[in-house]
Design the sequence.
């Protein structure tokens, strides 16, 4: 029976970097976490321990800082492509690269004197995500977001499901619908205005969540993805992972109080988890684009 080395990659994970653009008195900050991984001719280090071809993970970390100093950061997508091209095009033994760049947003503080030049506040838990993969000349960009928490206080129903053994959920035609949207979308090519596309897709997701009268979270998810693909031909597919943040109506009758859908218990677990991909029929195949993307998305 033979034994051989399978797919492998290595690199430096979660290099947290804050870049300050001081080109004007009004500073811009970009807060990113970069995970750099390389693929290629690195079998010797596994088989014999020889590191002759290994670009140290510490070198990859320092490359994040050096390229940011030389070129700035820009968007997560453009920086991920910059990193991937640097390694794949610059080192013979590197045939592929995976660069994950996540962006934490900061809001400029508005004071009594107006927007401040260099003071910021953290903008909640939402993160803009990006994974760039490069295998030879083939480049794929998968953008997205996570931690986009949304809620509708009405306009959501859930009924008509089978009453099978152990079913206890009560049907409802008026409920709170809440979720934390994690979504990633795969682009066709790299000639894209990354900021414009991201901002538009994010707004479409919010619009469809708010405006779709929901009969299920699945229906809402599909409406969000369908609208994004219809508006953006540069996107081949979009994936979602959306937990149903359950809210249960509190029974106040034993205290002589009614509850006309006003007082709810917000449960944190267990929760329903809805995941799906919406794909353009004529989209080019994904190939290995989703390799290394965590979980379903």
Sequence:
């Amino acid at each position: 029976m033979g034994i051989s080395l399978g797919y492998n990659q290595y690199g430096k994970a979660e290099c947290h970097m804050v870049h300050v653009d001081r080109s004007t008195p009004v500073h811009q900050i970009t807060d990113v976490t970069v995970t750099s991984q390389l693929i290629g001719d690195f079998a010797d280090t596994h088989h014999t321990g020889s590191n002759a071809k290994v670009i140290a993970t510490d070198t990859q970390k320092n490359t994040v800082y050096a390229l940011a100093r030389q070129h700035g950061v820009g968007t997560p997508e453009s920086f991920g492509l910059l990193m991937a091209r640097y390694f794949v095009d610059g080192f013979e033994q590197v045939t592929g690269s995976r660069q994950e760049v996540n962006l934490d947003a900061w809001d400029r503080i508005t004071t009594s004197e107006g927007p401040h030049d260099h003071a910021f506040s953290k903008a909640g838990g939402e993160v803009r995500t990006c994974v760039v993969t490069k295998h030879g000349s083939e480049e794929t960009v998968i953008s997205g977001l996570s931690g986009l928490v949304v809620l509708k206080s009405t306009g959501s129903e859930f009924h008509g499901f089978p009453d099978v053994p152990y079913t206890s959920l009560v049907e409802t035609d008026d409920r709170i619908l809440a979720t934390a949207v994690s979504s990633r979308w795969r682009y066709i090519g790299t000639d894209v205005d990354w900021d414009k596309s991201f901002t538009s897709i994010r707004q479409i997701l919010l619009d469809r969540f708010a405006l779709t009268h929901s009969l299920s979270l699945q229906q809402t998810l599909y409406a969000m993805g369908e609208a994004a693909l219809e508006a953006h031909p540069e996107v081949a597919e979009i994936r979602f992972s959306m937990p149903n943040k359950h809210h249960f109506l509190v029974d106040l009758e034993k205290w002589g109080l009614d509850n006309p859908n006003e007082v709810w218990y917000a449960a944190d677990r267990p929760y329903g988890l809805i995941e799906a991909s919406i794909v353009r029929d004529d989209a080019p195949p994904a190939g290995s684009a989703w390799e290394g993307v965590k979980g379903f998305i």
Observations:
- The longest helix spans residues 194-211.
